[in-house]
């Protein structure tokens, strides 16, 4: 996950490595980018790769990400290994929660409210049958364009978005 067309002020990596770590899921690192020169337009990106075997662990991780928030608008992007209820092959934990629902209930936007079309599916890249990869934005931003390029660079298809500050261009 990354931003283009804007200057990056800082990148912070947080090592991980434990596949069951509730803090960061199974990702080897998480990158937070602080962008822009205007404090009013400060924006951060959290590259996400949540655990793939357990929605319970993904929900716990999502709740931990909420605790890490510090006030600057935070874009969440990457492999959530989670889909909203009703999407193809979506899962919920024992309480009926999904990691995506934790984020959307907290105000992030991005997942459509209706079932995805074939062009929205992201996994597996050779013959996608589900959506696991998302760009979720906070209320300060909106997605003005989204594409899922049909390229097999990995086992997931990429998600490309154009974001706008509510009230003006962003990134």
Give a description of the structure.
The structure is a single chain. With 171 residues, the protein is α+β, with helices and mostly antiparallel strands. It is built from two helices and eight strands, in the order βββαβαββββ. It starts with 7 loop residues before the first strand and ends with a strand.
Describe the secondary structure blueprint for this structure.
Elements: E1 8-13, E2 31-35, E3 43-49, H1 55-68, E4 74-79, H2 99-105, E5 133-136, E6 141-147, E7 160-165, E8 168-169
Parallel strand pairs: 3-4
Antiparallel strand pairs: 1-2, 2-3, 4-5, 6-7, 7-8
Helix pairs in contact: 1-2
The dominant shape is: globular
DSSP E strands, number: 8
Give a short account of the largest sheet: 5 strands, mixed
Number of helices: 2
Cα radius of gyration in angstroms:
15 Å
Q: Briefly note the structural class of the backbone.
A: alpha+beta
Which spans have pLDDT < 50 for at least 5 consecutive residues? Answer: 7-32
Distance between the termini: 13 Å
Average of per-residue pLDDT values: 77
- Which percent range describes the beta-strand content? 25-35%
Helix content: 10-25%
User: Taking strands numbered 1, 2, ... along the chain, how are they ordered across the largest sheet?
Assistant: 1-2-3-4-5
Helix/strand order, N-terminal first:
EEEHEHEEEE
In short:
The protein has 171 residues and is an alpha+beta fold. Helices cover 12% and strands 25% of the residues. Helix 1 runs parallel beside helix 2 (99-105).
Which terms would index this structure?
171 residues, alpha+beta, five-stranded mixed β-sheet, three-stranded antiparallel β-sheet, 2 helices, 8 strands, 25% strand
